[in-house]
Amino acid sequence: MSALTDRFGRVHDYLRISVTDRCNLRCLYCMPEEGVQFEPSENLLGYGQIAEVVRAGARLGISKLRITGGEPLVRPGLPGLVRELASIPGIKDISLTTNGVLLADQAEALRAAGLKRVNISLDTLDAARFRFIARRGELRRVLEGIEAAAEAGFAPIKLNCVLLKGVNEDEIAAFLDMAVKRPLHVRFIEYMPIGHADDNWRNHYLPLSRVLEIAGELGLAFERIGDVLGNGPSDDYRIRGGAGTFGLIHPVSDQFCTRCNRLRLTADGNLQPCLYWVDELNVKAALGHPEELEKLFLKALAIKPRNHEMAAKLADEAQSHEPTARRMSQIGG
C-alpha cells in the first residue's frame, strides 16, 4: 500500500502547487475586483524550496504535479521550475492551469522544459462578456494562448468553464459545439463557495445537470467515456462524431471526495489536505529537514476529512468543520 494512503483508503499521488496568489485578471467567482491583499514576495516559497517539498512528496508516492496560482504565468522564470521538477525521481507528469493571457509567449519554453499538459480557463466566447467576468484583460489573448498551446504540441488541451447562472449559461451550446468541431476538452465546472459562501455564490450557482439537459435539447448523441488523460475529477462525455470531449466537474451537486487523490501546496508554504476546510500545515520550518517534510505529508493525510460539505452550505445546513476563509486564488485553483 502507498505511504500516502489516508484513513479512508484513498491513495494520494497528486500534488497541486500554487506558485503565486497574484493574478492579472479579477474573475468575479475567484477574487474581489479591488482591494486584494497579496502575500509579500518574501513570504512565498522559492522555486528551490518548492522542489524540496516535491522531492519529499515524491519519496512517499507523489508522481503527478499541477502548477497553479493565482495566475502562475505572472511569476517570472516558471520554465526553470518546471525543468527542475521534471528532473525529480518519481515525477511522471507535470501540468499547468492558466487563464491563458500570457500563454502564447511562454508555451514553447514550458513545453521544452517538460510541461506535459495545460488547462486554460475560458468562461465565455464573447469579448464583452469576458471583460465583465474577468474585469480586465482581453479574450483575444486567451484564444491566442489556446492556439499557441496546440502549436507547441500540448495534448490534451482542456478548457475550464465555470458556469454562472444568469451570466454564461446561455453559452453552453456554443461550448458543446467546440467539443464537436475541435480536439479540445471542454470541462464545465460548478461555482464553488471557497472563501466566500455568500449570496453572490448562491445566486449564481448552477448545477451541471443543466449541461446534459441542453445537450439533450440540442439532439446531441453523447456517451460517457473513461477519463481523458489527467488527474482531475471530471465525468467525461463524447458527442457522436465529435473531435473533442466535454466533462462535468460538480463538487457541489455530486461530490467526488471518495476518489480524491490530491494534496495542495499554497504559494506561502502550506500543505492543505482539502480545498474547502481551514486545516493546513506550514512547511517552512521543515525545509532543510527531509524527514520532517515527509512527516508533514503524512500528517496532512491524517487530518484529511472524509469529504467537504459544499452541498450542505448551499442548503444552509450546519458544517462539521470550519471552512477556509482563503479565496481560491490564495489556495491554488
TrEMBL record:
Sequence positions that bind S-adenosyl-L-methionine: 29, 70, 121, 192
InterPro entries: Aldolase_TIM, Elp3/MiaA/NifB-like_rSAM, MoaA, MoaA-like, MoaA_NifB_PqqE_Fe-S-bd_CS, MoaA_twitch, MoCo_biosynth_MoaA/MoaC, rSAM
Cofactor note: Binds 2 [4Fe-4S] clusters. Binds 1 [4Fe-4S] cluster coordinated with 3 cysteines and an exchangeable S-adenosyl-L-methionine and 1 [4Fe-4S] cluster coordinated with 3 cysteines and the GTP-derived substrate.
Domain Radical SAM core: 7-221
Superkingdom, taxonomy of origin: Bacteria
Assigned EC number: 4.1.99.22
Residues binding [4Fe-4S] cluster 1: 23, 27, 30
Binding positions for GTP per the UniProt entry: 16, 66, 97, 158, 262-264
UniProt xrefs under Pfam families: Mob_synth_C, Radical_SAM
Annotated positions binding [4Fe-4S] cluster 2: 257, 260, 274
Molecular function GO terms recorded: GTP 3',8'-cyclase activity
Pathway assignment: Cofactor biosynthesis; molybdopterin biosynthesis
Listed cofactors: [4Fe-4S] cluster
Catalytic reaction list: GTP + AH2 + S-adenosyl-L-methionine = (8S)-3',8-cyclo-7,8-dihydroguanosine 5'-triphosphate + 5'-deoxyadenosine + L-methionine + A + H(+)
Keywords: 4Fe-4S, GTP-binding, Iron, Iron-sulfur, Lyase, Metal-binding, Molybdenum cofactor biosynthesis, Nucleotide-binding, S-adenosyl-L-methionine
Function summary: Catalyzes the cyclization of GTP to (8S)-3',8-cyclo-7,8-dihydroguanosine 5'-triphosphate.
Family classification: Belongs to the radical SAM superfamily. MoaA family.
Name under which the protein is recorded: GTP 3',8-cyclase
Organism: Paenibacillus artemisiicola
Gene: moaA
